[in-house]
Structure to design on (780 residues):
């Protein structure tokens, strides 16, 4: 039973092996017959052909039957092979023979070149020889043609003055002409073969060269007449005019690239010199104009267009007199031409008129241009637009004037305000004590005069910008309407007020200052009408200021503005008057006709509002003032003003410190009348000692800022060290550095500017003693 099983297993294994062998032989057969190389199988023992594939049959022209069973010696194509005894010995020894180039002859006598490979291997117990035969005839022809072409090309290009080179597809140099090799620093073309650009003296440009080469090879398109730089063996950089094109074999296949170039360094240097000059002229910010000897414009650069408004096409053929503004007389131009015709350089200042009619100013330099014989053939003018600089210089001079007045105002403001504070305070006490209506009337007249004095000081500080009003978001329409109501009451009925007030965005402004602007401009307009019937027109609009608009108005920056325009039908102004109207104390009115501060105050207010003001006027045609306020994004409502009673105290203890006895006495008397208990001192040192002795005695300290030995700020700091949190009010007639914000940073509660009203004093003291968080506590 076991023997039967073993026999069955062996039979099955044999069957599987037979099937596997059959599959393997079939696969081999398919490969054998589909091969694109000739295959010849020989019996190693007999040397006879046992098999031949179809490709070899087709190549040699012999049928399979004509070759199978014969020895290779009996086959004419292989007679040279078998006759080579050395080959047979080598085959027997190494079991492998290879011929890279072997000539064969087909049945019809045609010569073919083949690559011949023979090797010996075992098939079972038999030894066979397999010969693989590949035809290389076409390749040999191409190589021969290429060698011939290269030889011919070498002879031609070596006779050319242009540099010629060629590379393979890996961008390795295959050859070049003699002048190219010398440019690269080699003795001859042979030294270049096998190298690449990274091995040349121009290695800095190698990557760019190779990038262009790849583009030519990959695209199959030439790159012609390209300018590029190259480093010479001497380290100098030269300029080349190069062309590159694909290099193809006999079948049109790209096998590399061919390039040529010429050294155009000298030509490029000459062109560059001309181009630099032309570029400098074209791109110069200064205007450059070239004329003939009669002044006819032959050339104008782009800056001329920007400055004058005329295009170059419009300017060519014209005379520069088209720019004349009439601001310079005939004698000015006569002297200029006299200098030029003498062959000298003229320097001067023009006031010219643009195409749109606006004026501009230029600093000019005009030089004669001579030919080789020294004859003047042209004039070249180089001009710089200095309009903006002139405007800035004018503004600077104005600012200097304002600064001088401001310094004067600051110097006298403190003492003057202290005097006014005494007058205001004692007027309050005098009116309270007066029994006679007649005396009360006199006091009212004094009050009005005092108010005018206070207003005058504030105006001086405003136009000098040393008194910066607190600002908040407001809608100008509301403020302007309120101001016009007051203005209407002060102007005669013969002056008609016309308004065009559209809804506008909010601006950051001080309502009181805007009132003052309207009143001052309105009063100024009334004076301009000189008692005749006329119209005062007030308009409001929103204006988007761009860079071009802002460039002609140095006070403006690009952005959105509310524009307030105030126009009158008065007598108007000439240019000389317009140039001075914002100067302090300048007035065209006679004696007693005004202080000359009205427009200076308006100008100062616009500065403190970060805005701008401009004026347009002609004699007999009226005047328009345009005021520009920067727009805020947040909304605002009209301020509400309501009369309030003066708050009174409930016996709180106040320490009042001022080095001037009249002011200290006045402060004590006024606060006593308001219901407070007041300790008056004129020495800050004594005041400090009093608080040190009884730190909790005083509910509030009011101290002047400017005092000898120890100013109010230092006194307050010492008091806060003794008693942190002690309420302190700082007063001043004028300070250029102390602000409400600075006061709070120092730990004080309020800053009061003298001369203040009793109303302000009472409200400030009550607010400090009873802050909003403590409302209802200890309130009388």
């Amino acid at each position: 039973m076991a023997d039967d099983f073993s026999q069955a297993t062996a039979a099955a294994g044999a069957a599987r092996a037979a099937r596997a062998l059959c599959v393997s032989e079939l696969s081999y057969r398919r490969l054998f017959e589909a091969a694109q190389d000739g295959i010849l199988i020989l019996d190693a023992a007999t040397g006879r052909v046992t098999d031949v594939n179809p490709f070899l049959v087709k190549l040699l022209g012999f049928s399979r039957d004509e070759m199978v069973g014969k020895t290779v010696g009996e086959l004419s194509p292989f007679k040279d092979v078998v006759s080579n005894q050395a080959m047979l010995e080598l085959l027997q020894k190494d079991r492998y023979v290879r011929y890279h180039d072997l000539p064969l002859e087909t049945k019809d006598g045609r010569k073919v070149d083949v690559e011949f490979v023979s090797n010996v291997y075992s098939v079972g117990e038999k030894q066979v020889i397999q010969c693989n035969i590949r035809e290389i005839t076409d390749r040999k022809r191409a190589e021969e043609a290429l060698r011939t072409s290269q030889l011919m090309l070498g002879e031609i290009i070596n006779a050319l003055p242009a540099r010629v080179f060629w590379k393979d597809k890996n961008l390795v140099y295959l050859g070049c002409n003699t002048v190219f090799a010398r440019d690269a620093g080699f003795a001859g073309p042979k030294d270049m073969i096998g190298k690449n650009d990274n091995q040349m003296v121009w290695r800095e440009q190698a990557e760019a060269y190779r990038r262009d080469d790849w583009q030519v090879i990959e695209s199959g398109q030439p790159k012609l007449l390209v300018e590029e730089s190259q480093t010479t063996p001497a380290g100098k950089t030269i300029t080349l005019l190069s062309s590159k094109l694909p290099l193809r074999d006999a079948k049109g296949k790209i096998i590399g690239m061919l390039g040529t170039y010429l050294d155009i360094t000298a030509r490029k240097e000459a062109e560059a010199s001309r181009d630099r000059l032309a570029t400098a002229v074209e791109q110069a910010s200064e205007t450059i104009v070239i004329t003939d000897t009669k002044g006819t414009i032959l050339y104008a650069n782009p800056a001329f267009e920007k400055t004058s408004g005329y295009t170059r096409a419009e300017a060519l053929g014209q005379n520069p007199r088209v720019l004349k503004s009439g601001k310079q007389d005939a004698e000015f131009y006569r002297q200029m031409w006299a200098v030029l015709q003498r062959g000298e350089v003229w320097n001067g200042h023009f006031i010219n008129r643009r195409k749109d009619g606006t004026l501009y100013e230029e600093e000019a330099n005009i030089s004669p241009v001579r030919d080789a014989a020294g004859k003047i053939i042209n004039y070249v003018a180089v001009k710089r637009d200095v309009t903006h600089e002139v405007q800035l210089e004018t503004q600077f001079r104005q600012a200097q004037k304002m600064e001088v007045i401001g310094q004067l105002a600051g110097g006298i403001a403190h003492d003057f305000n202290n005097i006014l504070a005494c007058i205001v305070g004692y007027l309050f006490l005098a009116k309270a004590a007066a029994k006679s209506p007649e005396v009360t009337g006199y006091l009212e007249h004094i009050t009005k005069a005092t108010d005018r004095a206070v207003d005058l000081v504030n105006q001086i500080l405003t136009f000098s910008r040393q008194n910066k009003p607190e600002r908040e978001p407001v809608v100008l329409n509301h403020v302007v309407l309120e101001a016009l109501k007051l203005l209407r009451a002060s102007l005669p009925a013969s002056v008609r007020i016309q308004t065009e007030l559209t809804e506008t965005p909010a601006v950051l402004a001080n309502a009181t200052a805007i009132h003052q602007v309207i009143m001052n401009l309105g009063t100024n307009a009334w004076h301009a009408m000189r008692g005749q019937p006329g119209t005062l027109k007030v308009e409001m609009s929103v204006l988007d200021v761009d860079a071009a608009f802002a460039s002609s108005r140095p006070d403006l920056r690009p952005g959105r503005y509310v524009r307030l325009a105030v126009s009158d039908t008065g007598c108007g102004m000439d240019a000389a008057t317009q140039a001075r109207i914002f100067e302090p104390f300048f007035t065209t009115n006679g004696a007693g006709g005004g202080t000359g501060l009205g427009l200076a105050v308006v100008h100062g207010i616009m500065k403190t509002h970060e805005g701008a003001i401009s004026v347009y006027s002609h004699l007999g045609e009226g005047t328009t003032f345009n005021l520009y306020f920067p727009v805020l994004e947040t909304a605002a409502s009209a301020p509400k003003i309501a009369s309030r009673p003066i708050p009174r105290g409930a016996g709180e203890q106040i320490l009042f410190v001022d080095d001037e006895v009249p002011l200290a006495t006045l402060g004590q008397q006024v606060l006593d009348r308001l219901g407070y208990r007041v300790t008056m001192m004129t020495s800050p040192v004594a005041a400090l000692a009093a608080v040190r002795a009884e730190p909790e005695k005083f509910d509030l300290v009011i101290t002047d800022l400017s005092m000898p030995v120890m100013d109010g700020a230092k006194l307050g700091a010492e008091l806060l060290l003794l008693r942190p949190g002690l309420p302190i009010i700082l007063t001043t007639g004028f300070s250029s550095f102390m602000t409400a914000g600075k006061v709070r940073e120092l730990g004080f509660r309020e800053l009061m500017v003298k001369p203040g009203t009793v109303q302000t004093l009472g409200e400030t003291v009550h607010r400090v003693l009873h802050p909003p968080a403590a409302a209802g506590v200890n309130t009388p």
Observations:
- The radius of gyration is 54 Å.
- Residues 423 and 599 are 28 Å apart (CA to CA).
- The chain has 24 helices and 27 strands.
